[in-house]
Amino acid sequence: MSDELKIPERSFRFAVRIVRFCRFLERHGNVSRTLAGQLLRSATSIGANVEEAQAGQSKSDFIAKMSIVRQRGARNPLLASCACRIRCR
Known about the structure:
Elements: H1 7-28, H2 33-54, H3 59-88
Helix pairs in contact: 1-2, 2-3
């Protein structure tokens, strides 16, 4: 992994970008706070679960936490897409 960022750093940077996006939506969009809040919680939980997975007690604990990361990661594009479409109207 010489040039690639490790997962904890990538998840942190992703969360920072989503936080900025949600701030932008609050200032410039008509997106509901519920939708922006869901996106924010989902995006920031990715990094939290990555950290928990790395500190896991066992391999099965690591796998369980990383499966949560995968689920949250799959949900974010849908939430972000909805937020963008609502904002663009």
